[in-house]
Amino acid sequence: MKHNLKFTLLALLIVMSVILSACGSTPTQAPATQAPAETEAPTEAPAVQTIKVGALYPLTGDLAKLGEENKDGLQLAIDEVNAAGGITSMGGAQIELVWGDSQGKPEIGISEVTRLVEQEGVVAIIGAYQSGVTTPATQEAERLGVPFIVSMAVSDKITERGFKYTFRICPKASWYAKDQVTFVKDLKDLAGLDVKKVALLHEDTDFGESTAAGQKKYLEEAGIEMVLEVKYSASAADLTTEVAKVKAANPDAVLTVTYLNDSVLIARAREALGMTNIPFIDAAGGTVDPEFIKQLGPTAEGWFTEIEFTKYAAGADVLNNAYKAKFGDDITGNGAYAYQAGYVIADALERAASTDRDAVRDAIAETDMPSGPKMVLPTDRIFFGDDGQNPNAPLFIVQVQNGELIPVWPGAYAAAPIQLSQ
Amino acid sequence: MVFSFELLGQALVTGILIGGIFALISVGLSLIWGVMRIINFAHGEFLMLAMYIAYFLVAKGGWDPYLTILVTAPALFLIGVLIFQSTIRPILKDPPMNQIMLTVGLSLILQNLALVFFKADVLTANTAYTRLNFFLGGVVVRGSQLIAFLGSGLAAYLLYWFLQKTETGRAIRAASINRDAATLVGINVRNTYLLAFGIGSASLGVAASLMIPFYYTSPTVGLFFGLIAYVVVVLGGLGNFPGALVAGLIIGLTESIGASLLPGSLARVLTFSIFIIVLLLRPQGIFGGKQK
Amino acid sequence: MKTRFRNSFILLAVILLAAFTLPFFAGEYIIHIGVLVLFYAYMAVAWNILGGYAGQHSLGHALFMGIGAYTSTYLFTRMGLTPWLGMWVGGALAGLTGWFVGYLCFRYGLKGPYFALVTIAMAEAAVYIVNNMSAVGGAQGLEVAWVGREGGAPLLMQFDGKGGYYYVILVMTVLSVWLSSWLIKRRFGYQLVSVRENEDAAEALGVDTLRVKIQASIISAIMTALGGTFFAQYFTYINPRNVFGEGPSVQILLFAIIGGLGTVWGPVVGALVLVPVAELSRSWLGGSFAGAHILLYGTVMVLVMLFMPNGIVGLYEKIRAQLKSRSSNDGKSEAS
């Protein structure tokens, strides 16, 4: 009995190794398929190459919706690059995106980085939306020597570890917190509201915690008192009590960090409790989702939120219209930054004229993208500091006014005055 | 530390209203678990399906949310019956672990079917009742939650009445107490199980319609409510309906008052602690008599 | 009989040789899948001692995994203690917790689904508690910093490339299978199985069922915690949800159940079959069709439970028994 069981085991092992080696037979080193060019006669023009670029986002699981925003934005950019003739320095090579699904889990994210690099042979990876996944995924990429462009993932420490292969386009969590606090201070001049006491209300995962840590630091620097911090689990059945707790602390303004599902519950509780006279300022969480306004209607009115991209900025409507035509919604910050990441990698490949990962890494490090058709962020240039962080990642603060996210801060981009209800 | 009687009052009101919903979600599980001794780990996912049905009727069809019960309850009954016949019935006599794993597998399937068909969007419906609020002193009462609370009580009572007073109900109870004896006195246990599973699922249809005016739906919305349902059922005692009602209120109040008094998100720990202590000391539930 | 024993010995040697030489001819991704297979096989073997042998189905084994992962990682990142030592501190803490959980549950006579529910609740409570413990990073979790560059830092359980990790988890898995097969042949093993099959009868025969179950709980907890340390070192990042949550809890026992509950080889077979399927299905279906690969995963679970309730090893034994009875009915002598 036992003896035969082991035979089965061996058979299984053989079957598994056959399957595995079948998958292993795809090229593991050469990032681009250059075989045709070598076998053809040298006089022929080389066949158009395909350059594989990995993209890692949470495509399933709780955050799949947000992963999709990233995916759509990135795909739009790469489609444009390919349609415009691909990478000309490599004979019009086309970029092929290879998708990795982190499922929102760190360990799956690492598995996918390994697969994209070893199995698919990608030249670089773009990702990964969540800090919890991006932190270990960039470490894995560093070990494997693959450039990793962080389109969105805000935890400060991601670019503070001295990594050579990690580049981040989006802002850090502390910059969100800093701008929220600056805005709160500016409310005095802009709307005549002198904020002395602030309450924090945030969800309890990495996103909420790391942003809240920054909020506390900058509030203290600004000399504004934090009267209360309320943490909640985003899956809660109801948040009326949590919001009532905020009300009881009687703050002049509330800083929130949310996902979409909990921001809906908070907005309804805020209205029900008659707190619409207190400004709620979100850190680019669930409130920037087009669904927030679409589904809540009048309940969403008056909310403030930070946002990485606004269609009201000069030149931004081109991207927004292209995105809207294809996917039906306004593009979000996630989508815009993923879109931008697509152009950053295309630009680096163009200059590197090579699919060698170190050459691509060096090209990314030397990125200096001026404002122009390839640049959708409202800044004069994108470049990466020695730590791999793009220092030019401006944030806006928008307010829901008549069902639209209208920029109200900073002053240069304000499209309408701030409205505070009494 | 913030404290005021207004806040405590708010926590009490919210806790009781939400507790009523917890109770309704749990009675279905209690019925299924009590009758066939199977923990349906896909219970939360059944609720999720029902919420999608209710949402689409309200948001796309313009239905009154409470009218959708006419669709959600029969639909869930049907889904429950189909799933029971195809997957649960064949494993009724298998070891408990296999039953658990099968229903865990079912929950994965349902969750990801929803993801494939409905995408990961969080969907909320704006209904005529959504913004209906009134104040009692300084405490706000959410109209939609009050209706849901009353509806839950009524639905649970009707189910209780059905089980106590009708012939079919008595057959279900008999089968849950002693399968063999029930067969001996001529009860068709097969049909009884089917009916119990269908009714247990249908109650989720009612819960979903009651919740849609103030809650959202998404493919993973069932995870949390499923977990809460196990807690409530254990607390109230298997198959014990009045017990489930009181237990639902206790858990609703625990979460709500815990949130108002405890720092961080520790209220949930309180819920689980109550659960563990009850399981250890009184596995028959706080209201159950001494059994097994 | 003798040749059969020798044959199986040779077979085992071949499997071990294949496993030990894999990194020499496979690429990094294949080695990575190998690490995943071995890791989940190891965890399933550990779970199987309490869940399979003793029949006490824990649905919250991530509790022990989390204790192991957090203890060694905390000691490593905050105090510089090598995980090779830290893993034993974590193991000891988990062993204590295993004793506590076992004592509480079995002392009060919790069985079957009730035991399963308590273990879920304990692991779930741990998620929220650790989430609110700023000393261990709260929700932000802990990151294992990569200290070595060239050649890694083997003394700190960090390796350059996947090969080093592969050998660590391979040795752990081999040892765990050995321990598991040794245990089941001892008096202790028979006592465990007697508790599972009929607790009252075991009690009547003089088995101290409470003590036996608690011992199984402790052994299982320690082994799971050691695996937790490996998880943290290999994936370099842990947070409350991904080591204490319901995800790992379900995964740990999934392989044991699908492979074959209560058998020595079931957990290993389960991981060997299922992990590559999960990995490959993600690369084939992922991205293009959100959710489809987990759908496949759930479907496999349901089908296995419906059609092979004793898992792969159970199905194999059933087929063998049927073949055997058919061939003896034919009056033929059995070959080999």
> Strand content of the residues of chain A, in percent?
15-25%
Q: Strands across the major sheet of chain A, in which order?
A: 7-6-8-9-10-13-14
Give a count of the beta strands of chain A, DSSP E runs of length 2 or more: 14
**Helicity of chain B, as a percent range:** over 70%
Largest sheet of chain A: 7 strands, mixed
For the report, how would you describe the main beta sheet of chain B? 2 strands, antiparallel
Greatest interface: A-C, 61 and 59 residues
- Structure classification of chain B: mainly alpha
Structural class of chain A: alpha/beta
> Secondary-structure element sequence of chain B?
HHHHEEEHHHHEHHH
Distance from first to last alpha carbon of chain B: 46 Å
Q: Which stretches of chain A of 5+ consecutive residues score pLDDT under 50?
A: 1-13, 15-44
Can you tell me about this structure?
The complex is a heterotrimer of chains A (422), B (292) and C (336). Chain A has 422 residues and is an alpha/beta fold. Chain A contains 13 helices and 14 strands. Chain A has helices at 2-24, 35-39, 64-83, 106-119, 131-144, 173-191, 206-222, 240-249, 260-272, 290-296, 316-327, 333-352, 357-365, and strands at 50-57, 94-101, 125-128, 148-152, 166-168, 197-203, 225-232, 253-257, 280-282, 304-307, 368-370, 381-383, 396-401, 404-409. In chain B, a hairpin with a 2-residue loop joins strand 2 (133-136) and strand 3. In chain B, helix 1 (5-36) packs antiparallel against helix 10. Chain B is globular and about 60 Å long. The longest helix of chain C has 27 residues, at 209-235. The chains are: A alpha/beta (422), B mainly alpha (292), C mainly alpha (336). Chains in contact: A-B, A-C, B-C. Chains A and C meet through helix 1, helix 3, strand 2, helix 4 and helix 5 of A and helix 1, helix 2, strand 2, helix 12 and helix 14 of C.
